[in-house]
Please model this.
Amino acid sequence: MGEQSSIGIDRTGDIAVFDIKGDVTSASEPHFSEAYKHPDMDGVSKILLKFDEEAYINSGGIAVLIQLLAETKRNNQTVAITGLSEHFKKIFNMVGITRFATIYGSVEEAMGKL
Amino acid sequence: MFNYTDISTVELSLPTQIGFERVAMACSAAFARYVGFLPERIEDLKTAVCEACLNAIEHGNKGKPDARVIITMTYDGEAINVYVKDQGDGIKDIPDDPDIEKKLLHLEAPRGLGMFLIRQLVDEFEFNILSDDGHTVRIQIKGGPEVESYQAST
Model:
């Protein structure tokens, strides 16, 4: 039940945009892992996570994002986020994700500041 | 058992299967909209109901296909109380608030965020309401000023 997530990678220089479609739940873990290990990620130092504003994200999905943040921290990569609804901006702030990933209002703003 | 003439109560019975928490979220959102809750409170309610149902499915009923999750929502003119009942024996260890730095260093499991989110988003909560046939979590959320318009119109 629900819409399975898929992640497209859009590479610009040393920035990779993860275009995240669909639900973000514990079932999304293989998609994030596969995207992070994709050959297109070679040499990436900055990752922008682009969510659907209507996305369904639950605690299992947040745990998957924390696992991804752990990997990026280990590899000294910068992570930014865009596309979240106001509710999920609040949730990400509550959990502490925003201490390790800056939220931007749009892809353009994020790309300009990364 | 609810009173059949009670128009302030809604009850749902869900299968023990991940994904059906979305049905409870949609139902709670519709109920909250009906009684005039503010949009941001509806989002808080949806997330809290989602996490309570996920806990009931995964930890309460432990995924047993012959167990159900029963959700009862009541509105008292000010707040919605949601009771999420599973057939488990309660929550033995309520996790501490998450520490993201520890999680990033793998010193703390990445999961265990659901109860934290519930505690943060609702006005009142109660875990471990135990009975002969299961365990119930109660969450209460108030709707905000727009609720007054519903009260005035009823």
About this structure: The mean pLDDT of chain A is 94. The interface with chain B takes residues 1-2, 25-27, 56, 58-60, 62-64, 66-67, 69-70, 73, 85-87, 91, 94-97, 99-100 of chain A (CB under 8 Å).
